[in-house]
Amino acid sequence: MADFISGFWNMYVMVLVTLSILFCVFVLVSNMTKREKGPVELHGHVWDETLAEYNNPLPRWWMYLFWITIFFAIVYLAIYPGFGDKNAHRGQLSQYGTEMAQAEEKYGPIFAKYRDMDVLAVAADPEANAMGKRMFLTYCAQCHGSAAQGAKSFPNLTDDEWLWGGDPETIKATITGGRMGVMTPFGPVLGAEGVKDVANYVRSLSGLAHDSLRAQRGKEGFETNCVACHGADATGNPLLGAPNLTNKSWLYGSSEATIIETITHGRTNQMPAFGEFLGEDKVHLLTAYVLSLSKK
Ligand code: HEC
Ligand code: HEC
């Protein structure tokens, strides 16, 4: 089981740990000098005019202690397991595995009952929603909030505004495969003044206070650069996850400063994929739960 969304940090930690251990071994080996027969030479450093030091190898017992720590690190790494799930049958992960198997046995039949029901019917079922809610609190709330109300950059799932679409199939596809919303930066294209003009035009679209002169100038910049994704009428494009800019619902915020930041630097936003991790049955229940939130 991956604890990170991408495999990058796993690799980062593994490489770092391996390099550290190899470095320790290298340092030890390069300091392993044999004690030579005959008189021991001096080190060459002299303190306080007469105080010199024999060039003796490091004491054996001292070296052994270091070797033991390295041995310990390798054994620990293998048992922990520090190199991913090849060792998943050991340690904590095996406990997780058996618990999952027990849960599967217990809840499997309950899931099966909902599996074959239409998702809209499941959405209307209180017991299914209670299960959906528990799963939502476990897997989704850290980003979307415990009441699914969202936060800056995390969409509110309780309203009727959707980036990608709010019909059952689309929501299921979102949860299963994840989503990546990408808006390219326009700072270099438009320049600071141009960005400010377009930002005022964007604010005018939803009836927010704006500088009308700037908005007028910004209209052209919008038509040239933005309609490809946000649509000619700026109501968004669910195929790209481009939001509607004409309503009161904002992913990042409606202040001029925030809109300027969005336009200047662009935005990249990711909803992780849950299909493989949760399996179809749980995704089915979660889809129903999300539907139940917005259909009130
Ligand atoms: C790591 C944070 C994170 C987690 C965890 C997460 N989401 Fe999301 N989710 C996002 C982000 C970010 C987006 C917006 C993606 C975009 O900008 O296109 C999103 C978008 C969505 C959407 C689409 C909303 C729309 O307007 O089209 C749905 C539905 C959704 N999430 C449901 C869920 C469910 C159900 C779970 C739990 C299984 C979940 N999310 C877990 C971050 C997360
Ligand atoms: C490549 C497609 C694309 C283009 C071109 C594009 N956008 Fe976007 N825009 C998006 C996407 C996708 C998002 C949502 C980003 C996310 O999911 O976090 C977005 C988000 C935004 C937001 C944030 C809305 C909110 O609810 O907070 C604003 C404002 C915005 N765009 C304005 C513009 C303007 C103005 C232009 C032209 C200068 C533009 N966009 C060009 C795709 C695009």
Fold and architecture overview:
This is Cbb3-type cytochrome c oxidase subunit. C-type cytochrome. Part of the cbb3-type cytochrome c oxidase complex. GO terms for molecular function: electron transfer activity; heme binding; metal ion binding; oxidoreductase activity. Belongs to the CcoP / FixP family. Its cofactor is heme c. The chain has three domains: 8-34 and 45-87; 91-178 and 273-294, Cytochrome Bc1 Complex, Chain D, domain 2, CATH 1.10.760; 182-271, Cytochrome Bc1 Complex, Chain D, domain 2, CATH 1.10.760.10. Helix 5 (126-139) crosses helix 13, helix 7 (168-177) packs across helix 13 and helix 8 packs antiparallel against helix 11. With 296 residues, the chain is mainly alpha-helical. It has helices spanning 8-30, 60-79, 91-115, 119-123, 126-139, 141-144, 168-177, 187-205, 212-225, 227-230, 256-265, 275-278, 280-294; strands at 42-47, 51-54, 179-183, 267-271. The mean pLDDT is 89. The protein is flat, with a radius of gyration of 30 Å. The chain contains 13 helices and four strands. The strands form two sheets. It has a two-stranded antiparallel sheet. The longest helix has 25 residues, at 91-115. A hairpin with a 3-residue loop joins strand 1 (42-47) and strand 2 (51-54). One heme C binds at residues 139-140, 142-144, 153-155, 157, 162-164, 171, 174-175, 179, 181, 241, 269-272, 274, 286, 290.
